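Notes from the pairing session

We agreed to fold both candidates in a single pass and log them together. This is the raw record for the first candidate, unedited. Please don't reformat it; downstream parsing expects exactly this layout.

Candidate A
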Amino acid sequence: MKSIKFILALMILININACAQFNLNQIQKEANTAKKDLNNLSNNKGKSGLSNDDIVKGLKEALTIGSNNSAGNASKVDGYYKHPVIKIPFPKDAQVVETTARDVGMGSQVDKFVMTINRAAEDAAKSSAPIFVAAVKNMTINDGMTILKGKDDAATTYLRNSTSVELKSKFKPIIQASINKVEVTKYWKPLIDTYNKVPFVEKMNPDLNEYICNKALDGLFYLVSQEELKIRKDPVARVTDILKKVFVN
C-alpha cells in the first residue's frame, strides 16, 4: 500500500514539474516574441521617423525619377537598337520570312528593317514620361505601403498596371507615325513580298504596329525596373533627401 502511495505521489510531482516547465517555456517564448515586436517597432521608427504621407512622397519621387530616366534613355538614338536586353528583334512569328530573305541575298534589307523598328520604338518612347507622371500623381497611401513592402520591382508593377492601357492606346498612333517616319515599310514590304512569292508557303503579313508597340512597352518597363532596383539597392542613386530616408538600409 505504501508503495502505491509513493508511486502516485511521484507521478503527481512529475506532472507538476512538467506543467511548470511547459508554462515557463511558453512564457519565455511569448516574452521573446514581444521583445522582437518591440525591437521591430523601435527600428522602424528609428530608421525613418517618416509619416505615411512622407513615404508616399518619397515613392512618387522615386517613380518620377525612374520613369523619366527610362523614357530619356529609351528615346535616345540606339536606346533600343543597341541595348543588349530591349533591342527589338525580327518578329518571331515571321522568323521564316527573315530566313528566306537572307537565303535569297536580302540580309542587308533585313538588318535595315530591324534597325527601323527599333527607331520607331525610340521615337515613341518620348511620349511615355507624361503618362508615367500622371500615374504617379494618383498613387494612394495604400499603393505606397504596398510598394515599400513589396518586391524589388513592386513600383514598376504598380506603374505597369496603372499605365499599360493608356500607354498602348497612345503608343499605337505614335508607332504608326514613327513607322512612316523612319520608313519601316520601305524595308518590310520587299521582304514580305519576296517571301509570299515563294511557292506553297503560307502567306503572312504580321501587324507591325502591334508587334513594335508591345516590344517597345516591354523594353520601357524593363528600364523602369532597373531604375527602381538602383534606387532600392544603391545609396548613390538616392539623389534627394526624401529618397535617402524612405529607402534607408
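Candidate B (folded immediately after A)
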Amino acid sequence: MFKFGLIHQINPRGEGELNMRADKVNQLRKRILARSAPLSPRVVSGLVGVVDSVAMLWSGVFIYLLDVGLRAELLFPYMSALVLAICLTIGTFYFAGLYKFGAISHPAEQVKKIVVICAIIFLCLVTLGFALTISPQFSRFWAFSTFFSSVILIYIGRLITEYVLRRWAEAGWVSRNIVIVGAGAQAIKLLERFDRVYEPWNLVLGIFDDRVNRSGSKVMEYPVLGTVSDLFSFVQEHRVDDVIVSLPWSAEKRMPEVVSKLKELPVQVHLGSDLAGFIYPRGSYSVLGGVTTMDIAYKPIAGRKNLVKSIFRKKS
C-alpha cells in the first residue's frame, strides 16, 4: 500500500479559501482511494448519450403530437424515421469525439460541431426520403421543427450537464483520476496550469518517477508515490482514468521505454507538452512530412484570397 501526502489545488478566487479547497480535494481523494465508487468519465459519457437521445425523442414526439395528432396509421413511419435519426446522430457524435469527457465538460467549444453533424444527418435523411419517394408521407413542419428543436435541446442539455458535473465534482460524486509520470520541470508546469485552470473533476492522485531520489517525496504538494513499475500495482488497487507522461521530449531513450510500459495499463495515456508547449497551450496541430507540428501563426492571405490578390496584381 502507498502512503499519500496532501493533494491540493489552488482556487483562483482568492487565497482566503485555499485551505478549505485543499481540505475538500483531500477528502475527495480519500473517498476515491477508499473505493467509494464515484462516477467515472465513462459513466458520465454514457449518461450524456442518454440525455441526447431523450432530447431528440421528446422533441420528435412532442412536435408529432402538435402537428399530426393521434393518428395511429402514421405513428410507425414517423417514429421509425425519428429512431433512425437518433441512432445516426448518437453514433456520429461518438465518432466525432463529442462523448469524450473533455468535450462534455466544455460544451461551448462544441456548438459548431453539434450543429454541423445534425444538419448533415438531416439533409441525408431528406435525400433518402426523396430517393425512396416516401417524403410526401412526412410533414415538413415536423421534419424542420424536430431538427431545430433537437439541436437546441441537445445544446441546452450539454450546458446543464456541465453545471451538474461541476456540482457533482465538488461534492465528490464524479472525478477524473489523473496520475503524472515524471517529476521534472515539465510536470511542474503542468501542475501549475492545473492549479490556474480550476476544474474540480480533474483530481491529480500523485506522481510516479523512476528517479525518485532526485525528485523527493512531493512536487508542489503532490506526492511522489514511487517508480513507473509501482504504478502497475497502484492501478490495480485504485481507479485511474488518465496517465500523463510529462517528460522532456529530448529524452529519446527514456520516453519510448516509459510509453511502452504504460501501454499495458487499462488507462488512457497522454503525452504531456514540453516546456515550449506551455507558451502556446491552445495551439492546433498539423502533420508535415509525417511529423506532428504545432501551428503558431497562419498565413494571412491564402487559398481564394491569394488567387484574388494575384488577379488584381496582373490587372494593375
